């Protein structure tokens, strides 16, 4: 004699399985979804939110799939049995419960989303400003504070940086996976991206928005260096450009506006 | 005899006639542009792009006139009468010829849609298999970047054509049958709406010759420059959208006006509710993409160069032109709801099949019906989540994040109701049920990978990466491809009167499901590790990550490519199964699945007129396990 489908024992067994599978699944996702090196303060926040979502994903996935597989195993039709299943058409309190519970989850994750967004995009004091220009298919960087220009992006470690971006032709997108944050560079507009690099080293800036023929190769070198090295690099750049720090400083004005697209 | 031979000449095949008509229309368009330019005094009388724009429009018109999709309307115009008759419009021709010509029977049109949809899915999939081979290793193998960039866009649109047209197949075949109607409300419009897809497909395929490299989203300013291929894509999609609008109008009218006696709205099989929600989206949102592609067509540098989407600075440096992000708003205002167009019918199929194979009522029928409408409604409020890294007010991002997360609520209702449906049932697992359960698992992965993208902070990392690719394909395979295959296997005996081969069906499923899972998780994996989408070459050591002394990303890419080949192979097995079983399969009988749905109460294959006597509906659609609930009584009027 088969137990009724509303027997408590079904739900206890399935409930235990949900817990076990959630844990196993999260462990699996942790390995299968490897975030790159955490090299900015923004990355720390984003990774935290990411892992929170993966936990949510694991639990909800386990919840549905365990109950589904449990039904597949326990409620399968025996050979030669052509009788019908139990007759119940629905359960309004249950429907209300699984409408309201997800709503609560939405409120919680909405709150996490809003606060993390605020943290990730917050303006900081003492920002290094860099004017970034994307064009088919490379990047150009100028430092309005000093007037230095470069094809590599060099930034001092642990100091907030602000990218003021635009594009000369089509839409590009600024992304260093190790810093996590991403922002499009749009012709005719100035968009802003903030991040604070925390680990010295070399990274690759890639264009994340399809921009034509060699989009895949639209990359630039990013170097995160100590404050001393950064100051030194600025001097070298300026010397190479035949300028000194004193005479520079007003170059960003010409750079700020986007070039007109000839039409 | 001579009469017969004349009938079966090549030009008597409607499709051939239509293609000739399209060709003539294109040439006429070219000639018209040359003439106008000559009269206007241009030195260069030939200009490829304007010629193609006019050629595309006149070509589509030429196709529809030549195939006869508008003949009845012309004859009304002249005051003629064209009474509706059941049966072939040209008696005496072989049966197959009906499927290549204008026919007003919704079952013929449904098959026309379904087969065309499957063909387009195969074409779209073939592009994927080609560039997946390229991506198996880093470095450039055999695809040039320009070809690769064209192929990714072609993959997208060919597959989307397949989805739209495949849905048209399910809707046109099933909806009238399910509500006990003899046909759609507007049979001529139905045929017109199908055939307009064919010139659209022809234009899309011609665009391949010219190449176009901005991906399926064709964001300007990139899509305003370069090859005339873009123009062909824009007009191809414009025509596809036309088909969507007319088809959905027809479906809404059919469901509201053509239901048989006793078939109240809440007694319709649940698939009809899914199609109602889908059709309402298509009827109200498609205009937006039509408009945005029309604007792109006019904004192209080689046509009128209207500055809708590019800044133009005046002498004072003020922008008096347009804005590239305007296009993204209009595009996604349609294209996000469109995602629900692609998945709601499939979710309807899941809800439709589960009760039959669980021998239990659909759990919370009304909740599921209403949740489809709720998803459709919320779907209009979330488009900005595609633009979190784009340029618009940072505060707006918060609203789009919250509205997007809200989609989880009605979607959750569906999942839990499906669990309630199978809980305590008597489950059996023929191929359609396997694909249904597979669809649930895959759509669950697609759905649950959504919130992390809807959350702005994490999306700043994941936007434009393979994570999005993985999320999207899981959503579409779970919400459309798996349910579509379930539907094909499930209604195959109804359509052909014969059973498909169960072993081959199961083989198809057990190859495709694990392969798809591996592919999806693999795509999400490399995306998180930092791989951008739409790149022909990648750094194998991405993110500095290695496994087993190999670049982690490259190992996963190889696995994804293998999975893609397994999926493609399994689909070939299905196609073989369908063709073979249509000939030699076991005779299925009227109702092999013991379903309560109206279409299973009539013979298989369904006779020309589905319901010679009107159906009187008295019971609930899914009262399995309740012996006292009859579904129909014989009508005598
Ligand atoms: Cu770029
Ligand atoms: Cu969307």
Largest interface: A-B, 92 and 107 residues
- The helix count of chain B comes to 21
Spans of at least 5 consecutive residues with low confidence of chain A: 246-263
Q: Remind me, CATH topology of the largest domain in chain B?
A: Cytochrome C Oxidase, Chain A
Unreliable residue runs of chain B: 1-6
Major β-sheet profile of chain B: 2 strands, antiparallel
Which series of helices and strands of chain B comes N to C? HHHHHHHHHHHHHHHHHHHHEEHEE
Count of domain modules of chain B: 2
Radius of gyration of chain A: 27 Å
Indicate how many domains the architecture of chain A comprises: 2
CATH class of the largest domain in chain A: Mainly Beta
Largest sheet of chain A: 5 strands, mixed
Give the number of DSSP strands of chain A: 10
Describe this structure in words.
The complex is a heterodimer of chains A (263) and B (637). With 263 residues, chain A is α+β, with helices and mostly antiparallel strands. Chain A is built from five helices and ten strands, in the order H-H-H-E-E-E-E-E-E-E-E-E-E-H-H. Chain A has two domains: 8-75 and 92-121; 128-255, Cupredoxins -  blue copper proteins (Immunoglobulin-like, Sandwich). Chain A has helices at residues 8-32, 41-74, 92-121, 227-240, 252-256; strands at residues 128-135, 138-143, 148-150, 153-156, 161-167, 172-175, 182-185, 191-195, 201-207, 219-225. In chain A, the strands form two sheets. In chain A, strands 3-2-1-5-8 form a five-stranded mixed sheet. In chain A, strands 4-10-9-6-7 form a five-stranded mixed sheet. The longest helix of chain A is centred in the first third of the chain and has 34 residues, at 41-74. The termini of chain A are far apart. Chain B has 637 residues and is an all-alpha fold. Chain B has two domains: 14-80, no CATH class; 108-311 and 320-634, Cytochrome C Oxidase, Chain A, CATH 1.20.210.10. Chain B is 64% helix and 2% strand. In chain B, the strands form two sheets. A two-stranded antiparallel ribbon of chain B has the order 1-2. Chain B has a two-stranded antiparallel sheet with strand order 3-4. In chain B, helix 6 (106-135) packs antiparallel against helix 7 and helix 7 runs antiparallel to helix 9 (197-210). The model of chain B is unreliable at 1-6 (pLDDT under 50). At the A-B interface, helix 2, helix 3, strand 7 and strand 9 of A face helix 7, helix 12, helix 13, helix 14 and helix 15 of B. One copper (II) ion (CU) binds next to loops of chain A.
């Amino acid at each position: 004699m088969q137990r009724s489908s509303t027997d408590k024992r079904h739900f206890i067994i399935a409930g235990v399985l949900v817990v076990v599978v959630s844990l196993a699944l999260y462990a699996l996702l942790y390995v299968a979804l490897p975030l790159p090196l955490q090299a900015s303060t923004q990355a720390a926040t984003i990774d935290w939110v990411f892992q929170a979502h993966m936990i949510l994903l694991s639990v909800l996935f386990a919840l549905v799939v365990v109950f589904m597989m449990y039904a597949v195993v326990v409620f399968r039709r025996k050979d030669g049995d052509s009788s019908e299943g139990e007759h119940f058409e629905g359960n309004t309190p249950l429907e209300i419960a699984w409408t309201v519970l997800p709503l609560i989850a939405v409120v919680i994750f909405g709150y996490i989303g809003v606060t993390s967004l605020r943290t990730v995009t917050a303006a900081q004091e003492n920002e290094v400003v860099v004017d970034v220009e994307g064009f088919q298919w490379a990047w150009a960087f100028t430092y309005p504070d000093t007037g230095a220009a470069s094809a590599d992006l060099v930034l001092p470690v642990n100091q907030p940086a602000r990218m003021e971006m635009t594009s000369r032709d089509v839409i590009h997108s600024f992304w260093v996976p190790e810093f996590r944050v991403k922002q499009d560079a749009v012709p005719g507009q100035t968009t802003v991206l903030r991040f604070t690099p925390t680990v010295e080293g070399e990274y690759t800036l890639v264009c994340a928005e399809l921009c034509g023929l060699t989009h895949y190769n639209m990359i630039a070198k990013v170097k995160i260096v100590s404050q001393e090295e950064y100051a030194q690099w600025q001097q070298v750049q300026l010397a190479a450009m035949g300028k000194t720090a004193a005479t520079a400083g007003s170059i960003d004005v010409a750079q700020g506006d986007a070039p007109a697209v000839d039409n | 005899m001579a009469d017969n031979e004349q009938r079966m000449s090549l030009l008597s095949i409607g499709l051939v006639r239509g293609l000739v008509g399209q060709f003539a229309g294109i040439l006429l368009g070219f000639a018209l542009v040359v003439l106008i330019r000559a009269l206007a005094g241009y030195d260069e009388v030939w200009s490829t792009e304007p010629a193609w724009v006019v050629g595309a429009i006149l070509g589509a018109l030429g196709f529809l006139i030549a195939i006869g999709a508008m003949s009845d309307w012309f004859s009304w115009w002249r005051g003629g009468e064209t009474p509706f008759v059941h049966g072939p419009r040209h008696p005496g021709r072989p049966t197959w010829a009906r499927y290549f010509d204008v026919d007003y029977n919704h079952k013929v049109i449904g098959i026309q849609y379904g087969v065309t949809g499957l063909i387009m899915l195969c074409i779209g999939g073939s592009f994927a298999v080609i560039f997946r081979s390229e991506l198996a290793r880093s470095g450039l193998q055999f695809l040039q970047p320009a070809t690769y960039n064209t192929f990714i866009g072609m993959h997208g649109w060919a597959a989307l054509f397949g989805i739209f047209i495949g849905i048209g197949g399910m809707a046109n075949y099933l909806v009238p049958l399910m509500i006990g109607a003899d046909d759609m409300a507007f049979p001529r419009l139905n045929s017109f709406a199908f055939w307009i897809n064919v010139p659209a497909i022809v234009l899309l395929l011609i665009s391949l010759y010219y190449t176009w490299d901005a991906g399926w989203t064709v964001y300007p300013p990139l899509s305003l420059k370069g090859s005339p291929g873009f123009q062909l894509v824009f007009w191809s999609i414009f025509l596809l959208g036309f088909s969507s609008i007319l088809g959905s109008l027809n479906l809404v009218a059919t469901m509201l006006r053509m239901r048989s006696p006793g078939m109240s709205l809440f007694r319709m099989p649940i698939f009809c509710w899914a199609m109602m929600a889908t059709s309402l989206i298509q009827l109200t949102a498609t205009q937006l993409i039509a408009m945005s592609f029309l604007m792109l067509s006019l904004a192209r540098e080689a046509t009128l160069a209207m500055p809708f989407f590019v800044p133009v600075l005046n002498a004072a440096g003020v922008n008096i032109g347009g804005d590239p992000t305007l296009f993204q708003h209009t595009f996604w205002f349609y294209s996000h709801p469109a995602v629900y167009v692609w998945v709601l019918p499939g979710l309807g199929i899941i809800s439709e099949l589960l009760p039959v194979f669980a021998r239990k009522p659909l759990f919370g029928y009304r909740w599921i019906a209403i949740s489809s409408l709720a998803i459709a409604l919320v779907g209009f409020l979330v488009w900005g989540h595609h633009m979190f890294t784009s340029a618009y007010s940072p505060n707006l991002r918060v609203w789009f994040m919250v509205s997007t997360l809200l989609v989880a609520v009605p979607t959750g209702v569906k999942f839990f109701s499906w669990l309630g449906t199978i809980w305590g049932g008597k489950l059996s697992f023929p191929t359609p049920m396997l694909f249904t359960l597979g669809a649930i698992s895959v759509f669950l992965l697609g759905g649950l990978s959504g919130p992390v993208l809807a959350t702005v902070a994490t999306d700043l990392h994941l936007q434009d990466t393979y994570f999005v690719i993985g999320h999207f394909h899981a959503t579409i395979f779970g919400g459309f491809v798996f349910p579509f295959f379930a539907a094909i296997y499930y209604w195959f005996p109804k359509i052909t009167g014969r059973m498909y081969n169960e072993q081959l069906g199961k083989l198809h499923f057990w190859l495709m499901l694990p392969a798809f899972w591996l592919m999806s998780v693999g795509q999400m994996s490399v995306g998180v590790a930092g791989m951008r989408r739409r790149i022909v070459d990648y750094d194998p050591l991405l993110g500095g990550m290695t496994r087993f002394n190999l670049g982690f990303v490259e190992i996963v890419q190889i696995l994804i490519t293998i999975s893609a080949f397994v999926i493609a192979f399994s689909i070939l097995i299905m196609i073989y199964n369908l063709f073979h079983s249509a000939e030699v399969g076991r005779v299925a009988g009227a109702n092999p699945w013991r379903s309560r749905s109206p279409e299973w109460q009539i013979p298989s294959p369904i006779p020309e007129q589905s319901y010679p006597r009107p159906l009187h509906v008295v019971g609930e659609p899914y009262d399995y396990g309740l012996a006292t609930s009859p579904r129909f009584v014989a009508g005598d009027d």
